[in-house]
Amino acid sequence: MGWKASFRLLCMLAAAAAGAARTSSTEEIKEVRLYxxxxxxxxxxxxxxxxxxxxxxGKAGTIAVSCFVIRHPKGTLxxxxxxxxxxxxxxxxxxxxxxxxxxxxKLSEQLKTLGLAPxxxxxxxxxxxxFDHTGNANLFPEATWILNQAELNWATGNxxxxxxxxxxxxxxxxxxxxxxxxxxxxxGDGSVRILRTPGHTPGHQCLxxxxxxxxxxxxxxxxxxxxxxxxxxxxPDFNYNRADTxxxxxxxxxxxxxxxxxxxxxxxxxxxxxxxxxxxxLD
Length: 283
Hints:
The protein is α/β, with parallel strands linked by helices. 24% of the residues lie in helices and 25% in strands. It has one domain (32-274): Metallo-beta-lactamase, Chain A, CATH 3.60.15.
């Protein structure tokens, strides 16, 4: 094959790849899909903060930082936005207060795998405003931001609450917003519902999905950090309100029982590894 024929072939392959990406981004979505994205890791010298009754004292551990893309016939929701793509450029990660944080792959690159650009994300919502859930929020200024009013009031209060990086989600000031103060049906058909679960923070939320094949799925946010916290009702020592946390745990457990839901504990490595490996999905 001559160089001209080779060049034409390369151009054809590039065009085909570009076409495939366009097809994916405009693909007709007929049923709700849940994609789990890897948005970082945090290795802790001590897990003690995750229970105020001492079960993790002196124990090291690693937690996942997950993001979720929910594709719906009426749009695409991003639930939580991870540690931040800028951390992926630091090969060895960063250390902060006994926590080593890394991001193995950028959120933007994972979206590209799905044939999506940030502008294709129509809605962004957060379980809460701790920094490991808002790191990439400003990549989505064109989306509708679904914001819990109590959470926003707390996060932007004076003094700035610990664990909140206001700059990481500053685009809410200019983005289109939908302010909520309770449960919210994102697409209006009951398939994607934000559930009010205060306690970890004042406006903490979980996400409930009703999938055709997989049934009801609940994404935990930080209502539970570890599977053991769910099983034993363990409350982190840095939660905003212990009583509210336990009441929210009780609410979610009742929903799990009544709907036979599958709970995905977002920070639990076992739960992260148990979902379909990206770019596979639950539907």
